[in-house]
Design brief:
Largest sheet: 2 strands, antiparallel
Number of helices: 4
Radius of gyration: 21 Å
Shape: flat
Distance between the termini: 32 Å
Structural class: mainly alpha
């Protein structure tokens, strides 16, 4: 069982008061909850390692790049905590889930579809512009962080496209899912 996850709620608690076993959970739910708890603990340890590495270096470039990673790791930590909270609330019914259910597209899902399609068009245009900029920045790729930063933005844009395609497809055909 995940020890010291810091997840609150109904269930068996360890000596620190963290829930390690969800009362009424299926075997699958319990396994996922424990996995999430272990991952949150690992993410916290990794965050501390990154912070120490940034504090110990004299390299401003390394410090800057590590700060970007720390921001991502913090968001990951938050998402895992939200997943665990949502799993717990789906078992205990003691609170609203932190992550909403897919059925919650609102009374007019066609508006969600239209908005996601408009936003997808903007993200695809952004992706094209970023690709062009990456090419233009090749001349400084070994002397600045610029090309790397734009390439990271390309990855963010790809993530945005993945999210919007998911939303569009699920809002368009909620009966399929």
């Amino acid at each position: 069982m995940a020890q010291g996850t810091g997840f609150a709620g109904a269930g068996v608690k360890d000596k620190e008061g963290a829930v390690t076993e969800l009362m009424g959970a299926s075997i699958w739910e319990q396994e996922i909850y424990e996995h999430l708890g272990r991952h949150v603990e690992t993410e916290q340890e990794v965050l501390e390692e990154y912070a120490a590495a940034a504090a110990e270096t004299d390299s401003e470039a390394f410090k800057y790049l590590v700060s970007l990673i720390i921001d991502d790791e913090r968001r990951h930590h938050e998402r895992f905590a939200e997943l665990a909270s949502t799993l717990r609330s789906s078992v205990t019914w003691d609170s609203e889930p932190a992550v909403p259910r897919l059925a919650q597209w609102g009374p007019l899902p066609e508006r969600v579809v239209a908005a996601s399609e408009r936003l997808l068009a903007a993200e695809h245009a952004d992706a094209r512009e970023l690709r062009e900029l990456v090419q233009k920045l090749k001349v400084v790729k070994d002397t600045t962080l610029w090309q790397l930063l734009v390439r990271l933005m390309e990855h963010d844009t790809a993530k945005h496209i993945m999210i919007l395609e998911f939303v569009r497809d699920h809002a368009r055909h909620p009966e399929r899912f």
